[in-house]
UniProtKB/TrEMBL annotation:
Keywords: Flavoprotein, FMN, Oxidoreductase. Its EC number is 1.3.1.9. It comes from Azospirillum rugosum. InterPro entries: Aldolase_TIM (IPR013785), NMO (IPR004136). This is Enoyl-[acyl-carrier protein] reductase II. GO terms for molecular function: enoyl-[acyl-carrier-protein] reductase (NADH) activity.
Length: 377
């Protein structure tokens, strides 16, 4: 049992403990909280990005398939709405990647997140020569180490629960595999995070911070079409399904999205194309192209035009935790309050049994185990 005095003591201690747990991430990002708003093509434009940064998180502009002039315009527009740090997400296979990096340099962007495959050493160098910090994705410990060797300043590990293009391994397993062993650079955990208690768990495993996408789609400041937001609000975790490849000759990069008529049609199309190739009516390359092109422009149609039937409704499993439209500041405040209260409960428990509640020294060193544990254009 805790008394009121120990509750107050544990609240202050919980805040101090949280600040200590994510100090490395906050220092790296230059923010009040180590919560990154994961870049979401079409959704993460100036309004959402600046709102996240203004609320103490770290907004990231999604470049997606934008040409350099549009990206320059979006960065300038974001700078007009916030004086706080924010990043830019570039897709590694964008045909004008070098020019996009040059735009980031000209605009004085502080952090570039490279998604959609492993960046080359030359790409990392070009970004760093322009003065920005580089963040890369690492789906395994080995690839994370390679990215660090090539010069990445921080990593994002993203589990299969996430929305958009996904890997095969869950966030919890990736976190346990990578966080205890990769301590050279800050590592941010993404995929399936919708509450502050989960943030604490990953921080305690050694994460520097977290990256959250789905939870921000229905922010008041998000320009996503009202129909897009409505399906998010109604959906449950099981509606956010990974796309399925039905024939290894026709590879499909898995994308997690809410099931709709479009995703059903995608399965039918794969079957039709495969049958036509098998009958010799089209070549394998023609078939591959038809499958690849199916989703072209589909995310834009859903997010901007509100076509929720045939557009791509990219969403993570944490969509089940999205229950209403909320201002970004409220979402971040809720996450921080949940993180603090989970720490306070624990500290309160310690105080009640006579243990000290003061936080210990900040240590980015060895891991302390706690009790818990690319956009279609
Ligand atoms: C609609 C949508 C679009 C996305 N587009 C991108 C993108 O363009 N680039 C990228 O690196 N990640 C993209 N992502 C992934 C997010 O940045 C983030 O890592 C992911 O949403 C985290 O998992 P969560 O959705 O469970 O929070 C997208 C996610 C969603 C839901």
């Amino acid at each position: 049992m805790t008394d009121a005095r120990s509750d107050i003591r544990s609240d202050g201690a919980a805040r101090a403990r949280l600040d200590q747990l994510w100090a490395r991430g906050r220092d790296f990002l230059g923010t009040r909280t180590a919560i990154m708003g994961g870049a979401m093509s079409w959704v993460s434009e100036r309004h959402l990005v600046s709102a996240i940064s203004n609320a103490g998180g770290f907004g990231v502009v999604a470049c997606g398939s934008m040409p350099p002039e549009l990206l320059a315009n979006e960065i300038a527009g974001t700078k007009a709405l916030t004086a706080k740090p924010f990043g830019v997400n570039l897709i590694n296979m964008h045909p004008q990647l070098d020019q996009l990096i040059d735009v980031c340099r000209e605009q004085g962007v502080s952090h570039v997140v490279i998604a959609g495959g492993f960046p080359s050493g030359a790409t990392i160098k070009r970004i760093k020569d322009g003065g920005a910090k580089v963040m890369a994705f690492a789906p395994t410990l080995v690839s994370g180490r390679r990215m660090v060797k090539l010069g990445a300043d921080a990593l994002v590990i993203e589990g299969t629960e996430a929305g958009g293009h996904i890997g095969p391994v869950s966030t919890t397993v990736l976190a346990q595999e990578i966080l205890p062993d990769l301590r050279d650079v800050p590592v941010f955990v993404a995929g399936g995070i919708g509450r502050g208690e989960a943030i604490v768990a990953y921080l305690e495993l050694g994460a520097a911070g977290v990256q959250i996408g789905t939870r921000f789609v229905c922010a008041t400041e998000s320009i996503a079409h009202p129909r897009f937001k409505q399906v998010f609000i109604k959906a449950s975790a099981r509606d956010a399904q990974a796309s399925v490849q039905i024939d290894p000759r026709f590879p499909v990069i898995p994308v997690r999205a809410l099931a709709n008529a479009g995703s059903k049609r995608f399965m039918e199309l794969q079957r039709e194309v495969i049958a036509r190739v098998d009958r010799g009516e089209m070549s394998r390359d023609e078939g591959l192209l038809e499958i690849e092109h199916f989703w072209a422009g589909a995310l834009r149609r859903a997010v901007i035009d509100g076509d929720i039937e045939t557009g791509s409704l990219m969403a993570g499993q944490s969509v089940g935790l999205v229950t209403r439209e909320q201002p970004v500041a409220e979402i971040i405040d809720d996450l921080v309050a949940q993180a603090e209260s989970s720490l306070a409960r624990r500290i309160g428990g310690l105080a009640a049994v006579g243990q000290p509640v003061e936080p210990g020294p900040v240590e980015p060193g060895p891991v302390e185990l706690g009790p818990a544990v690319l956009g279609a254009a």
